[in-house]
Amino acid sequence: MAQKWTFSVVALIFLAGSGWLGYGVQQHIRAYRAAREAYAEKMDYKRRLADLAAWFGDGKDKSDEAELETLKAEMENASSKAGMLAVFWGVVAVIFAIFSWLFARRAGNTVWLKTGLLLIALACLYPGLSAPMLEISAYEQNLEIPIKLKTSFFSLDIDKTQVFEGEMYFYYQSKSVLELIGLLFRQHNWLVGVSILLFSVLIPVGKTGLSIWSALSRRMPKSGLLRWLMLRAGKWSMADVFVVAVFLAFLAFNNMQAGIETQSRILPGMYFFMAYVLIAVGVSSLMTGTSPDENV
User: Fold this and answer.
1) Which of 52, 113, 226, 290 gives the lowest tally of CB atoms within 10 Å of its CB?
2) pLDDT tens digits, residue range 231-247?
3) 137 φ/ψ sector (left φ>0, alpha ψ -120 to 50, else beta)
4) How far is CA 296 from the centre of its chain?
């Protein structure tokens, strides 16, 4: 009983600390995205091409230059802070994993190590689901538009190339897992939205939660449905498939030959979700290979 209380107190401290750090990562990444969206909106092709003043100058709106520099600074600052907090989160998780391993060795019971790792997986889940995971953009750098106009009526002969300096954005998007699911629902893509929610979020989370409960209580769920979810639902979990799909989308968009520059970037939300998948699926698979009684 004393061992369980000691481990529970340390686990609660870890969950509170990792939750606070995860919230910070989420907020800073969202601040980065907000600044990036504002920057992309300022440099949107419709806005810039509709600006008559830009056609008769160097292609830049002088009044916007200071604001663009401010947005760039905000993006860099928010991204840096998010990265720093993510590193701190990782350090805290490693310390808790080492504690769980040492605690398991001293107690002569591997269940504490497995439980600790599953708690780390669950702690990854909040930023993994709520923080943006991938951003994609399509733009043209220093867009050149040739202008040729010749008429004998006004003796007009124009032959020049107008350069719109900087990026001209055609597309920018960044979503978290939950925002992606919400977007699918709003667009009435019910089948895809429900599939991602069920097989990539709910089933893996339910399996992980039941694994932790089973390890700590040292008994299997009595309900047939819960036993199935814990022992057999792994093959229905598509969280790992979802991670692979996002990485494939990242690689495909980054190497797309579309006549304009395309760029994709993995954001911290993806790394947290991937860590959750790797730890939870791995440890849960180990736990289903032995009964709770064999772990004591």
Assistant:
1) 52
2) 555 555 566 666 767 76
3) beta
4) 37
